[in-house]
Write a structure and sequence with these properties.
With about 110 residues, the chain is mainly α. It is globular. α1 (about 10-25) packs antiparallel against α4 (about 75-95) and α3 packs antiparallel against α4. The protein is about 65% helix and about 0% strand. The chain binds flavin-adenine dinucleotide (FAD). GO terms for molecular function: flavin adenine dinucleotide binding; flavin-dependent sulfhydryl oxidase activity.
């Protein structure tokens, strides 16, 4: 019989979303073509537009912060450092611990020693 899985909470949606975004970052090319850069810019802009958040002032602030920084899509390093900084801005607004971005590749790409 089917196990009755509940709908996702905003924490689960958030954690899954960051997992997807950082995993996409881990596969982003070192030297993306113009097409790949345009696609990533559009993807991030649309992702932020469709992100399933209730109309909350916090989420509005996060969307504003996104519009102010715009993703750096020029390279692997550029995109991932932009994404980590943006994630830290969200952490800050939600009063969460700041992530030390020097550990980004250990956490999301290469694994810890
Ligand atoms: P998460 O923030 O989900 O992070 C998951 C893991 O990523 C962490 O355990 C850590 O290992 C790693 N990590 C943390 N920070 C970084 C970083 N800077 N760089 C790299 N890796 C990092 N929640 C709300 O309540 N209100 C909102 O308005 C809201 N808006 C959101 C908007 C977006 C676009 C997204 C993606 C999420 C939003 N969330 C919001 C969800 C929120 O950001 C968290 O995902 C959720 O609260 C669960 O937090 P968590 O402690 O599991 O860690």
């Amino acid at each position: 019989t089917y196990r009755k899985v509940p709908p996702p909470t905003k924490e689960v949606i958030g954690r899954s979303s960051w997992t997807l975004l950082h995993a996409i970052g881990a596969k982003y090319p070192e030297a993306p073509t113009q097409i790949q850069q345009d696609e990533m810019s559009r993807f991030m802009a649309l992702f932020m537009r469709v992100y399933p958040m209730d109309d909350s002032s916090t989420f509005n602030e996060i969307q504003k912060a996104f519009k102010e920084t715009r993703p750096n899509v020029s390279s692997y390093k550029g995109f991932n450092s932009w994404l980590c900084n943006f994630h830290n801005k969200v952490n800050e607004r939600l009063k969460k611990e700041k992530f030390d971005t020097t550990f980004w590749e250990d956490r999301w790409a290469n694994g810890w020693e």
